[in-house]
Design goal:
2 copies of one chain form a homodimer.
Chain A: E1 10-13, H1 23-36, H2 43-61, H3 65-79, H4 86-101, H5 110-117, E2 122-128, H6 131-141, E3 149-153, H7 158-167, E4 175-179, H8 182-191, E5 195-198, H9 212-215, E6 221-222, H10 229-233
Parallel strand pairs in A: 1-2, 1-4, 2-3, 4-5, 5-6
Helix pairs in contact in A: 1-2, 1-4, 2-3, 3-4
GO molecular function, one term (chains A, B): hydrolase activity
Protein name (chains A, B): Haloacid dehalogenase
Keywords (chains A, B): Hydrolase
């Protein structure tokens, strides 16, 4: 299927794992957490149970590091049958603080692509998670000035995008979203008749994974790097 | 000093303790926390130390319930010299979950005033804290439809307001902010030459308190209830 981008006026970029590394830090944190709780369970079981706990708490805590830390604390109490030590509790809090204090590591080609495309398009940043954490990461990234608007959403479903486009007075046909998550950055956009380009990151959080059947017949392109955007959009 | 509101086109409402009860729940949580840690310290000392911990963590965690819970967990470890029980840890997590699950209790006159003023002004909601928590409270409040725009800020300083007014294309002279916090809802607005009306709540978080010298000579009105707004704005 030939996809035309000639009507695009505004490009939305996802942030975590599209502009900069994020999921890798969560994976590292999970590994560290599993090590701390090794006396009580296998690493694999701890991973599974932590994911279940995160999903249970998601409606209450939402996305982001703080909710993740609270879920680790709760999981540590549960999986140790209330035998976990206070030393481990302190270590869990520190995993979270370290995550929030991480430097921002830009992905390949990001600055190039933003510089190039900000000449001809309005660029906006569309991310989800902790408001303060996302603002801090953007500031650390040095990319703020490329963006006309920053939007931190509590979730990235069709309704959230429709509201955003309405608010910014953009027609779906004029909007292109670029991101690494099929579930959050691609499918909702295709479903509201906007455009989307998928740039996968090497690892995807289980919660963001979708079945192949959900992407069947959906009109979006997949690129292996943001740098290919120049070729595709020409 | 006579203040004229005749140029006002947009009214911004703070949410917590302006439209609905919030600080009361934090006070209750602090009391409960102090009870849990009574074996280790006096209630007064625990209160003071928790506040210090919140201030230490504020740059990292920001405002809202999740950061508050993480600070309680850290404080419990510290004040007990790592002797706090896992039962107490569970109780602390539950304090936070209860806060997030609280029903929304509207303050006097809120619905009346919003209904009335939405006829002649654009109303926007301007709040800070956890994004998801604030969205959830707004939804529970049933007030969503009165607002033309919802803005959750990571902080409420002059710069945050200037950006917001810019983004919404509103001149400061056309904007009136209404809220309970002198520090967050009133002084930054006066300083950027917008308008502000103070409607105090019966209790104010220590972090939001300002010295009398900071309000000297600032042109804002104070009302004892939102209901007085009709008289003042006529």
């Amino acid at each position: 299927m030939e996809i035309s981008y000639k009507n695009i006026k505004v490009i939305g970029f996802d942030a975590d794992d599209t502009l900069w590394v994020n999921e890798t830090y969560f994976r590292d944190a999970e590994l560290e957490f599993a090590k701390l709780l090794a006396p009580y369970e296998t690493a694999n079981k701890i991973d599974q149970e932590l994911f279940k706990m995160e999903m249970k708490n998601l409606p209450l805590y939402g996305y982001g590091v703080k909710g993740f830390v609270l879920s680790m604390v709760e999981m540590a109490l549960e999986i140790s049958n209330n035998n976990v030590s206070n030393t481990t509790m302190n270590a869990i809090l520190n995993i979270g603080k370290d995550m929030l204090n991480k430097p921002v590591e830009l992905l390949e080609g990001v600055e190039d692509v933003l510089k190039e495309f900000s000449k001809d398009y309005k660029l906006i940043l569309v991310t989800k998670g902790d408001l303060l954490d996302q603002e801090r990461k953007l500031e650390k990234s040095g990319l703020t000035n490329y963006f006309h608007h920053i939007e931190v959403l509590s979730d990235k479903q069709e309704e959230n995008y429709s509201k955003l486009l309405n608010h910014l007075d953009i027609k779906p046909s004029e909007f292109l979203m670029i991101g690494n998550s099929l579930k959050s950055d691609i499918l909702p956009l295709i479903n509201i008749k906007a455009h989307a380009i998928h740039v996968p990151f090497h690892t995807t959080w289980m919660h963001e994974q979708v079945k192949e059947s959900e992407t069947n017949g959906k009109a979006y392109k997949t690129l292996s790097s943001l740098l290919e955007l120049k070729k595709v959009m020409r």
